[in-house]
Amino acid sequence: MALSFETARDRILGCVEPLGAERVSLIEACGRVLLESFSAPWDLPPADNSAMDGFAVRSADCTPGASLRVSGYIPAGASASLLEPGCAVRIMTGAPIPSGCDAVIPFEDAEESDGRVLPRGTVRPKDHIRFQGEDVRAGAPVMPEGTVLRPAEINMLASFGRSFVSVHRRPRVAILSTGDELVELGDPLPFGRIINSNALSLAASVRELGAEPILLGIARDEPQSLRDKLAQGLDADALITSAGVSAGDRDFVRDVLADMGVSPVFWKVEIKPGRPLAFGMRGKTPVFSLPGNPVSTMITFEEFVRPALLRMMGHRRVLRPTFRAELCEPVKKKPGRVQFLRMRVVRRGERLVAASSGDQNTGIVRTMVHANAIAILPADCAGLKAGDFVDVHLLPWMESIEE
Ligand code: AMP
Ligand code: MG
Questions:
Q1: Residue of 178, 198, 256, 289 to test ligand 1 pocket, by largest number of atoms within 8 Å of CB
Q2: Which tens digits make up the pLDDT trace of 352-366?
Q3: Which pLDDT score is estimated for 241?
Q4: Cβ(18) – ligand 1 distance below 6 Å
């Protein structure tokens, strides 16, 4: 019996587990998920330093009418120094504050002539100083395990001298296309054959989320060919096949997988497109058998495979955020299956407005190209009017949603 969309996705997520640890250099770490917790090894900033280019002074010396002798120069990167009473020192942003000094006067708030400085306004203690540890205190917990490393986290780890971090391994994802009609990209294209485009879009999707695609090429619609290729795929962390899972008389993928020790978890989901989706596990390796129509392949990857691979990479939030968008045209639908619609979403004032990106036939790839979002119509929905709201998932790399 076919499963509901949510049940199928939950079953998949219930089967897959985060992969183990590997150490990566910080330059490779963006998008990875920490498998250690990180506490500050020292104060940040490590020493009091100037927040401005200006003069380091004692605030008590800066009485109205005061004139301070400029007694020195501290560039960024200088080592510790001392400020004599009644003097000022030229100091650059980031340079260590000399001992004895408790404020910095920015150049724009001082007059300088003949080697002396006249402060213009009032100077208060602590003005324009960045204090040791004011950002992060030594020992403070900064990043718990499970933190997704973005440029900001990378910046902080680098500031604390970390060149390597322990993160979840990225899944190696084997991709196998099946079908007698397929030829590889770059090979001659005889009449009646089509190019194995699914391998390329699947590899692109796998890369986009930070996992590593392994292209296994094409298996023909016969069990031996499938067995040879699938054997390689089952060594990977995850296997994705496309096509050959419908009820056609040459659709052998599920049977061969079962022969090879893949325990079926489900076959068929009440969705459109993508109903013949099959999923199984061999050991810890999830096997996604996606239907072959490129639109079905892309949408089922997006809605089922992507969250699973993210979980394997250690991500805790694996589902895309859902936004509500207002339909600007009616949509016909029969109750029964969840329907995924290819949409163009734009922002109009405070709202998101969605229109179909065109022909929703499964065979039409053009409207996937024109789409920047997928709308998810619930199974029981029996059509919608203009002005009704739908849930949408924005697709990766969508350009602006401004009109
Ligand atoms: P199937 O699931 O085998 O019935 O295939 C469904 C449709 O998807 C057919 O029109 C196939 O030609 C097409 N198709 C299958 N595999 C691929 C592929 N790797 N690249 C592009 N189109 C494909
Ligand atoms: Mg086929």
A1: 198
A2: 999 999 999 999 999
A3: 98
A4: no
Spatial separation of the C-alpha atoms in residues 355 and 128, rounded to whole Å:
52
Q: Indicate the top mutation candidate among 175, 197, 202, 242 to test ligand 1's pocket, ranked by most ligand atoms within 8 A of CB.
A: 242
383: pLDDT strictly greater than 80: yes
Q: Domains of the chain (ranges plus CATH)?
A: 5-20+170-312 (3.40.980.10), 21-44+134-168 (3.90.105.10), 49-130 (2.170.190.11), 323-394 (2.40.340.10)
Q: Classify the C-alpha dihedral 6-8-11-15 as positive or negative.
A: negative
273 lines ligand 1 (CB under 6 A): no
Give the whole-angstrom CA distance, residue 327 versus residue 320: 20
Candidates 250, 378, 391, 362; CA nearest to 298 is 362
CA dist 339 and 378 (Å) reads 7
Spatial separation of the C-alpha atoms in residues 44 and 200, rounded to whole Å = 45
346 CA from centroid of ligand 1 (Å): 31
| pLDDT score of 209 | 95
Tokens representing 390 are 């739908």
Q: Give the pLDDT of residue 392.
A: 98
How much is the pLDDT for 396? 86
CA 279 vs. chain centroid, Å, equals 24
Over residues 165-185, the mean pLDDT reads: 98
- Residue 59 · residue 124 · CB < 8 Å: yes
Q: What is the mean pLDDT of residues 49-54?
A: 98
pLDDT digits (tens, 9 = 90+) for 196-211: 999 999 999 999 999 9
Instruction: Let me know if 289 is exposed, middle or buried by CB neighbors in 10 A (0-12, 13-18, 19+).
Output: buried
Q: Can you name the residues that pair with 346 across neighbouring β-strands?
A: 353
CB 50 within 8 A of CB 128: yes
Rounded CA gap, 235 and 230, in Å?
Answer: 9
Most ligand 1 atoms within 8 A of CB, residue of 194, 197, 288 to mutate: 194
User: Of 218, 300, 292, which is closest to residue 266 (Cα–Cα)?
Assistant: 300
Is 217 touching ligand 1 by the criterion CB < 6 Å? Answer: no
Q: Are strands 212-219 and 172-178 parallel, antiparallel or unpaired?
A: parallel
